[in-house]
Specification:
single chain, 183 residues, mainly alpha
Length: 183
């Protein structure tokens, strides 16, 4: 069981690192660097290609975090943990659900945005684009950015709670033994 638990914990951590690292790279490096591309259409195409490629890796990372956490969590009764650990476990449940929902929603809306800015704009479409289309695209960008920030915050929260749970496990022998099943 220890080898399986270790593998699950590793998958959980790699998934979490992927979700956090990808979001930070995108926000702080990729998006600003795209500003160096002067042609708007080319800039949007490059951004769309990059985010579409990463979205599959990001989705796999979120799935690894959620699956390992909830499978491991289902193996514990809760009797062997302190009241602090129980509260932290519930907090992590909420954060994992928030991470998964905001991550999936961000990927879906990001793809809609990518299709809108890259796929629908032809020379005729651009010439006749209405103010409503631009406002709709901007609202979509705002929603994707907000979901991305919420997802990043949830994932950083998961990392923090996971660390505190690990520290809590070291204080209690019964919890330490039970926690070996948790990622």
């Amino acid at each position: 069981m220890t080898t399986l638990s270790s593998a699950a914990w590793m998958a959980h951590d790699v998934g979490l690192a992927t979700a956090i690292g990808g979001a930070m790279f995108g926000r702080e490096a990729l998006q600003p660097a795209l500003g160096e591309i002067s042609d708007r259409k080319e800039r949007e195409q490059v951004a769309n290609i990059a985010w579409r490629r990463f979205s599959w890796i990001n989705l796999a990372g979120h799935a690894a975090v959620a699956a390992t956490w909830f499978v491991g969590r289902s193996m514990l009764s809760g009797r062997s943990v302190s009241s602090t650990a129980r509260r932290l476990t519930v907090a992590k449940d909420v954060l994992v659900i928030a991470s998964l929902t905001t991550g999936i929603a961000s990927i879906i809306l990001g793809r809609v945005l990518g299709a809108r800015v890259c796929g629908e704009r032809g020379s005729e479409r651009e010439a006749s684009a209405s103010r409503n289309d631009e406002q709709g695209t901007q609202r979509l960008r705002t929603a994707v950015n907000a979901l991305g920030m919420a997802n990043l915050a949830a994932n950083i929260g998961i990392a923090g709670v996971t660390t505190v749970l690990s520290m809590e496990a070291s204080k209690s022998l019964p919890f330490s033994l039970a926690a070996r099943r948790l990622p």
